[in-house]
Design a protein that fits this description.
Elements (H helix, E strand, L loop, with lengths): L1 H19 L4 E4 L4 E6 L11 E4 L6 E20 L9 E16 L7 E8 L2 H11 L5 E7 L6 E5 L6 E5 L6 H15 L3 E5 L17 H10 L3 E5 L17 H7 L8 H14 L4 H5 L4 H13 L17 H4 L5 E5 L6 H17 L7 E5 L2 H4 L7 H16 L5 E7 L7 H4 L2 E6 L5 H10 L5 H4 L9 E6 L6 E5 L21
Parallel strand pairs: 9-14, 9-15, 10-12, 10-13, 11-12, 13-14
Antiparallel strand pairs: 1-2, 1-6, 2-5, 3-4, 3-6, 4-5, 7-8, 7-17, 15-16, 16-17
Amino acid sequence: MARLTQQVETFRALRAEMEAAVLPLATSVDGRRFSLQASVNGLALRLGGYAMLGADGEGTLGQVRALELAEVEVGEVALAAQRAEDADIRTRLPIRLARGEGVVLDRGAAPFHDRSARPATPAEVGAWLGETAPDRAQLAVGALSLVAGVPFSLDAGGFDRHTFLCGQSGSGKSYALGLVLEQLLLETDLRIVILDPNSDFTRLGELRDGVDADTAARWESAVAGLAVRSSTATGDDRLRLRFTELGPATQGALLRLDPVADREEYGELAALLAQERPSSLAALADTEHPEAQRLGLRVRNLGVEDYGVWARDDAGSVLDALDDPDVRCLVVDLGSLPTREEQALVAESVLRGLWDRRLERRPVLAVIDEAHNVCPAAPEDPLTALATEHAIRIAGEGRKFGTYMLVATQRPQKVHENVLSQCDNLIQMRLNSAADGAFVAARFGFAPAALVGLATDFRLGEALVAGKLASHPAILRFGARVAREGGGDVDAAWARPAP
C-alpha cells in the first residue's frame, strides 16, 4: 500500500509540474482571430477580458471570446513496480490546461505564432479605446467590468440602428435605460419619444442629489424641451386623445368591430364618421341615424366612453407633441392610465403617429419599455395587434426615414420576432433563465455566445453591449445617473432586523 501511495503521489506531482509549465501562448493564422493556451494555475486571462499578445511595445491587443478547461495527453510516464520481479508500470499522463479563442482588436495586425499572452493593463485598454473612438458623440455610461478603472462610452451614432435592451427584474434595466437616454439628451440632438408603462421616466427632468454644477447646467439646457404627458396631470400635460384623430382601424378595434366578421356595423361606423364627423363617442351615439343607436349600445356595453384618456373639453392631445418643434423629448406615461385597454390605445396611437410622420424624415428614437406588453409575440386583443403591426413596420422600414427604435423588456421571448430580428444593437443585463440566454444568443449572432452566457452571473447594473453602438462586444457596469428615477422598487424596510 505504501508503494502504491508513493506511485500516486509521483504521478500527481509530475502532472502538477507539467500543468504549471504550460506557457500562455497565442497563435493567429489570419491576424484577425487567435487561439490560445495557458496554465490553469493562477489563470489570469478571463472570458470577455483583454489580452496583450506579444512582447511589451510590440504586442497587439485582443479580447478573449471563448475559454474552457481542456485535457490533453503529453506522453507516458513510468512508475516503479511494486515488486522487484514485476516490470515498471507505464501509464498515460493527461494534463489540464485552459484553451480559448479570441479576436484581435488592433486592425491591420499580421498573423503570428506562439506569442506570449498576458492580461492587458488598464492603460493599454484605455489607450486602444481612445485611439479607436469614432469622430461622433460619445455617451459616457460607465466603466469596463473586467479592467479596473477604464471608462467605457457608447457610440451615439450607433443608435441609427434599432437597439434591444433586456434584463430580468432587479437587474438594473430601467436604471440603465434611463442613463442611456440621459446621455443621448446631453450629447446629441436626437428627438426621443418614450412609451413608459411603469412611470420610470416621469421625473427625467429632476436632478439627482450630488450632481456637479457644470453637469446641472448642461442638464437644465438638455431638458428644456422635455414634455411629460400623464393622466394624473392637469392642463396641457394631461395625457389625452381625441376619438376623431384615431385611425379607422383603431376606431374599429376600439369598438371590437372586425371589418370582415362585422362588416355591416363596421361599414355603418365608417359612414357615420365620414358624414357626421362627431367630436366624441358620445356625439357619435347621439346622431339621428338609426344605425347610431346600435353603435351607441356597443359603446355603452364596452364602457369605452368612460375612459379617462379622452380629451373631452380639453384642447389638443398627446399627438400634438409629435408636431411641436419645441418638444425634444416626450414621455408618454402609460403607467398613469388605469386600464390595460387605455394603455394599448395610447401606445398604438403614438406608434401610428410616428409612422404617419415618417416622411418628415426628422430623426427620432422611439423607446418602447416593457415591449412584451406593447408588441408581444402573440397579441391578445385588436388594439395590441395594431400596435404590434406599427412596431414591426417601424422596425422593418423606419430607419430609412430616420425613425429608430430602442426596445426594452424583461422577457426576450415574449417580444414579437419581427421586431427583434431588425435590432442590430444589444444591451443584455442579467438573465437568470438559461432559455432566455440561449434565445438571445440565437437571435443576435453578432454577440459572442460565450459572452451572452455570462449574463446569468452578471451583478446589478452589469451588461454586455454589442453592435454598432460599441467598439466591440464589451462587458460594462453602468455608472451614475443625472436625473431622478420615476419608478423603482418598494423599500424593503420590512426585512430589517427588529429593534
